[in-house]
Amino acid sequence: MGPMFPRLCLSLIASVSAAIWHWAEKQGLGLRDWTDVEVSPDGSVISAVATYGALVVSFDGGETWYYGDSSADYKAVRITPDGSKIFTVAPYTDGVWIWTHRFTIGNSVFWNVDKKYVTSDAWYDVATTPDGVIIAAVVNPGNIWISRDSGSTWQADISVGSTQEWSGIAMSDDGSKMLAAAYRAKIWISGDSGDIWEEVASSPSDVWFDVAVSSDGSKMIAGGPSLFISSDGGTTWAQASTVGTRRFFQWHGVAMSSDGSKMAACGYGHPEGSIWTSMDAGVTWLQEATFDTDAYFYSGYDINSGMITKISMSSDGSQMVAVSSSPGYIMIREPGTSTTITTMTNTTTASTRTTSLSTFTTSTGTETTATATSSTATVVTRTSTTGSTTGSTTLDEETSAGSAVSALGLAPGQEPAPCVACVPCLSWLTGTGASDSAPFIITDHPARRKVEERSQLGPLGQPKGPSATLSPGQSRSATWAFRSDEDKAPTWTLSEKGIPCHPLQQEGKTYHGCHPDGWCCLDITCSKTDHCDMATKDQATPGPPLRLPRDPVTTPCELDAGGETFHWDPEEDLNLMFVLLQEDVEGLQEEDLESLVKLSSSQPLRLVLMSYKTSKDEIQELMSKTQQQLEPLIAALTPEERDRAKQSFVLVSQPAWHISFDRCWLPSVTHSWSKEVTLLQFSSEYDFSVSTQPQSIRGDWAKDGLEEALSKPLRWVGGLCEEQEMDPSWPAPSTALSGSIALVARGSCSHYHKARSAQDRGAAGIVIFSYGEQTVAMSCAAPDPCDEVLQIPVLMISRSLGERLLEELFPNVTSDDQGPATEREVTATLRSQRQGPDLVGVLGGGGLWYNSPIGMSRLADELIGMEYRRKLLQRREELSQSGDVLRIEVFKLAAFPGGLTFPWPASDAQTIRDGKYTELEVELALDCKDHLDDNCPPWDHELNLYLCIEGVSASSACHDRRLSVSRWVTPYGREAHWFSANTAALPLLSSAEAVAGKGTLHLHTWQHYTVSLVFWFRRTSNPSPVLPRSQMPLWLGGPFDLSYNPLHQPVTFELPPATQRVTLSALITGHGWGVDEDNCAEFCDHSHHFSVNGVTTGLTKAHPTAGNQDGCKTKVFLGVVPNQYGTWPFGRAGWCPGQHVDWWEVDVTQWLQEGSNTLTYHAYFNGTDYEPQPGGLEDDLGFPAEIHLASVLTFYSEEGHQQPVELKLKPLQPLENSRRSVLFP
User: What is the pLDDT of residue 1092?
Assistant: First the structure.
C-alpha cells in the first residue's frame, strides 16, 4: 500500500498549545428543555427560554439570573440591545408576547407583558430589528407573519405559495434582508423586508433548523443537514466543508457577529454533538466542545449532555452562550489558557507536501499564515491547562498512519477526505474530545456537574462492560454496555452429596470444580470435602438454575431446624427471607430483632436464620443465643400476634454452605451470588483488634480486590484536601505517608483527589472514614481524570470506626493540643475473601427477590416493601378475574429511553364511555436489565404521563400539566412497581377529543428503564352511576416565591345543567432545594389552600413530613421503594423517591350553588406568602423552589355516559403585569 501518513496526518495539525475555550454550565437554573437563547450586542444581557414554562434573563453576563414567566412552552426569544424588552413565541399562545422590564427592587424583577394577538397557532421563531419596530415570526406549520409597527398590526406573507413547516427566521438590523428556514423545504430569502420571498435554489430541500444574518445583511448562514453560507447578501451560497461531517448530524443552532466575521454552530447526531466556531467568516471551523449523543440516535434520548439546540453571540463574538435540552443547561463560553492551534488546509503528493498553515490564538483572535514542506509529520503532545510548554514528536509513517486512521474513524486503506475535514482531530490532541464526558457517578468533587444524566450510562459508576484501550478521539461510552451476567455464569459442579463445589487454590492453581484427584471443597475454607465426578471435569457444565432476581423458584426446600424439618413450598403465598449470617457474626443486635418480631406479628412471612459457619456446634450455640433473644420479644406480643411471630422465625442448624441442592434450591443462589470481598483488620500491640468489611469503590478508577494480603502501618493524614476544615477534637495530621496506609476524613474534595494525593505521597492504600455511620460506594466523575487508574486500594469505613482508630493512634491527644501528636503503631491489614450473600428472598407469588446489600438494620423495611409488592400481585390477579374490569395494556416491556408515546385509540375511549366505567387504576413497572440495582438509573426523577391532544398540545410528546394522567417519582438505583388510583384522569381519557382519536399518551422522564404500563378501568354494580360530564382545568404551578399567589387568580364558573356531583382534584408536588435557607420546595412544609364560595373546611393540603429524616422511610408500606440509595428516607413535599403521586381529591358539591361560583387557591409557607431567603447548601445541583401543580374541576351526572366528556381547554394565557422573583446569585 505504501506510506500513508504523509497523505494524511500532515493535513491535521502542526502545533497545539494549552487548552481551548471552556464551556461552563450555569448551575442553579435546574435541568430544563432549553429551546432558545439570545445575547445582547455587548454581551451583558442574556435571555433563555425552555419548554414546560421557563423564561429567564440575566443583566450581568450570566452571573445573576431572574425568572420571567412560566406559563407557556416557550420556543424562541429575542431581546433589545439594552434588555428592556424581550420578545417570545410559544405554540398556541396567539402570537408574539413582548415583555417590558419595569423595575427591579431587591430580589424581585417586575415586568409588563403586551400580548400581540395574531392567531392561535404553533409559533416557532421570532426576529426583530434592534428597535423592535419590525417583527417577523413563523408558524410550524403555517405562514410567515410580519409587523412593521411594533406588533400593532400583522400580515401573513403569501408569496411563498403555501404554508411551510417554518423553523427559523432572522433579519438584518434595518429589516430589509430576511432569511427563513423550514422543515422538508429549501432555504427562503427576502430582500424587501418580507414582501416577496424566494427559494435559495442551490440549497437542498431538507430539514433546516436555524438561520442567522449579519447586521448589514451581507452575510448569512443556515443550519440543517449542513451549514450553508452566503457572503454576498444571499446571491450565492456555498456549503461549509471544514466542519465535521457526521452521519445523521443536524445543525440546530447558528449565530454570527454583527459583521459576520465570526460564526458559531451547534448540533447533534451520530456519534457526537458539537459546538463549532469560525473566526474567518465560515472559511475554516474549529470544534470547541463535543458531547456524546450515541444514546439519542439509538434509543431516542441523549443521556449524556443533552442535545445542544441553540447558540447566540454578542456583536463582536466575544460572548457566546448555548443551550441544551432533554434535559440540559445554559452554557457560557469562558476563556481558558491562551490557545494556539495550527491547521493545514492543502494537500499535494504522497511523498512531499506544501501546506498552508492557518494559525490563530483563541484568547486574542490574532491570525497568521505560513507555508511548510515536509514528508514526515509532527504531532504535538497534549499539555495541561496550566502547562506553558509544548512537546512535539515526529512519528514514523506506519505508526502514525494507524493512529491517524483510528482518529478519523477510517477503515485501513480508506482514503481520507481533503485535509480540511481532519480538523476534528483537534479534539483529541487538545484534550477536548468525547472522553471528557465519560460517564461516572456520585462523587464528592465540589465542582461535579451533570452527575445525574452522565451516570445513566454506567450503573452507579461501574463501567458497563470490559474496559478497553480507546483509540484517539474515540468516545469512552461507545465501549460500554449494560452489565449482564449472561456471558459469565458461574460454574456449577455438584459433589456426590449434591452440594456445590467451591473454588480451591492449591500450589498456585485454581480449581473451580473437581480437583484432579476427584474431590472438591464444600465451603470457602475447605473445612469439609466430598467426592465429585471426574468424568465431566473437562466438559462444560450448566450454570446454577437460579442466578438473577425474578428467576422463578419452582422446587421446594427442606432444612434441619433444631431437630425439626422446615418445609417450604413454592405455592405458599407468603414472603420468604433467608438471613445468612457471615462466619464472623456471633449474634444479632437486639434492635434488629425487635423490629423483625414486630413485623412478623402483622404480616405473613418466613424468616429463616442460617449461618456460614462450618461448625454445627458453633451454629447451634448462635441459634440458641438468638432464640433466647427472641423469646422475651415475642412474649410481649398479644396472643394472636405471638402465634404468628412464632411461626415466622425458623432457626436452622445446618451450615449454609453444606446444604444439598437435592433438598433445597438455596445453594443455587448462594453459589451464584457469592463474590470476593475485601476484609479490613486493624490491630496494635495494646491488644486492640477490630475487623470490618469496608465499602469499596464502584468503577475502574482505583485498584479493587487483592491478590494477596496487604499489611502496613496506619497513618492519619487529615483530609488531603486544600482548605478542608478538621474536627477540632481530631489530632493534627501526619506528613509521613510513604509505605503506609492512609487514614483520611471524607469531605471538601473528591474521593479520587484524596486517593491520588495519597498515592503520590507513597501510600500503599487509603481508608476514608465517612461523615456518619452510613458509608457510600465511592465513584469518580469529571472533572477528575477518571481514566487514569490508581494503583492503590481505596476503602471507606464509618465515622465511629474512624474516630476509634484515631483514639488508638493518639491515645493521649485532647482538643487543646497543638502541633503534631505522638502517634503509636496500628497495623491495617487488607485481604480478600469469598463471601456468600447476606439475604436471599422469594416474593410470595413471584420469584427471587433482589440481591441488594441492605444489611440487617434495614431488613424490616425490605420486608415491608416485599409485602407491598405481594399485595400488588394479588391486586392484579383480583382485577384480572373481575368481570367489571377493562384492562388496556399501553406498554409491555418497552425500552424507555426517556420518553414513550402511544396513540390513544378512539375505540378505547368510546368503550370507556359506553361501559360506564367509573374508576381508573394505573399499573406501572420500571425494570432494569437483569433486574440488578447496578443497572438502574441512580437518581430520582419526576415521571409524568400526559394525554397530548391534537390542536391543544404543542406536540404529541407534550409536557402539558393540564393534561396529566399520572405522576410518579423514580427511585434511587432500584426497580419499581406500583398501582395508583387515577380516577381524576378518567374524564380526560374518555373526552370528546379522545373519542375523536386526537389523543396521544406521552410517558416522560429523562431516565432509561424497561416499562410496562396497564390501565385498569373498573365499574360499580350501580346500573345508573353518575359519570363525568365535563372537566375544567384550573391552575398550574410555577416558581414558589412572592409572585406565586398573585399569579393564581380566582376562577368563576357556573354549574352545567343536571350536575349531581363536583370534585376538585389536584396533583401537587414541591421541588427545589439547596438555594434558599428553608430548602424549599422539596424539603419544606408548604400548604395549599382552596376555597369554594368562601368555604375552606377540608380544602387544605399540607406536607407535614417534608424535611423529616424518615418521612419517606415510614411510607414503604404505601409503595415507596425500600432501601434505595441517596437521600431516599427524607420526607418530601407531596412525593417520595420511588413512589407514585396520589391525586388529592375533594367532593365540593355541598358548597356549590346555582348561578356563579368562585374558587380560590393560595400556597403558603408558615402561613404566609413565601419569600425565599438566600442560603441553603450552595450545592451546584440545587435549584430554586417550584410547585408542580395540575388541578381540575370535574362535573358528574347520571347522563354523563350519553356523550363524551367536554374538556374546557383553552390555550394558556399569561397574566398581565406578571412578575417573577430573582434567582439568587
Answer: 97
